[in-house]
Amino acid sequence: ETHGITFRIQISLKELLDTDVLLKLLFHLPVNYPSTLPDISVNSDQLTRAQCMDVKDKLLEQAKKHLSEPMVHDLILWIQQHLKYVIKQSATVCKEKTALSKGTSTEDGIWMLFLHLDHMRAKAKYVKTVEKWASDLRLTGILMFMGKIILILLQGDRSNIKEYLILQKTSKVDVDSSGKKCKEKMISVLCETKVQSQHKRFQTFEVKEYSTLDELQKEFETAGLTTLFSEFVPPLLK
Predict the structure, then answer these.
(1) Which parts of the sequence belong to the RWD domain (predicted)?
(2) How many Cα atoms sit within 13 Å of 41 on the Cβ side?
(3) What is the CATH number of the domain that holds 47?
(4) pLDDT in tens, 119-147
(5) Model's pTM, two decimal places?
(6) 73 and 166 share a domain?
(7) Residue 99 CA from chain centroid, whole number
(8) Do 166 and 230 fall into the same domain?
(9) pLDDT confidence of residue 96
(10) Does the residue 167 lie in any domain?
(11) Residue 137 CA neighbour count, 13 Å, CB half
(12) Would you say residue 98 lies in a domain?
């Protein structure tokens, strides 16, 4: 396989105040692993988004120490032994930031992902798959069709955005010219950024078709994303 492998591991740990913490870890190992670091996604209902991001950052720090040697087992053992310390350190940092920002949220905030797909041969199945991923990962936004242009705009927690990208790149979502199931190899990440105050927050995930470029442009303007449109969409028409 040209995209490596992806797998999930769940660990239940008794950590803070004897509360069970269920860590959900997703590892994507690229084909040249372990010479290349794995992509790691961390989720837990018992931890805040900021704490999950801190756990991920610490795991990546440890991964760098094991570059060029198999590391996943060592990373699992390390986080089992050090989760309590990571969480306490994260809580201290959060308190300091909160004091500085006078109560402003220290969560990672809502992120936005803007993708371009080259084509969809099995369109109906592909669209259903994207809708399911968006629903499962609590992502909102729009899947847009305008002529041959296919765009996906997503908003949500950064870790869920990252996980969506892993699914998009590693799952068999389409069919090739012979009708055989295949992975998405012609996807472009146009932009990945934090949602700003001027950006509209999407409440649902929709699939829309536009007959003209003007219609598509108005969609972006309404969402406060005029700059995003002008920077990335016109070049796709060339």
Answers:
(1) 1-86
(2) 19
(3) 3.10.110.10
(4) 777 788 888 888 988 998 899 999 999 98
(5) 0.53
(6) no
(7) 29
(8) yes
(9) 42
(10) yes
(11) 29
(12) no
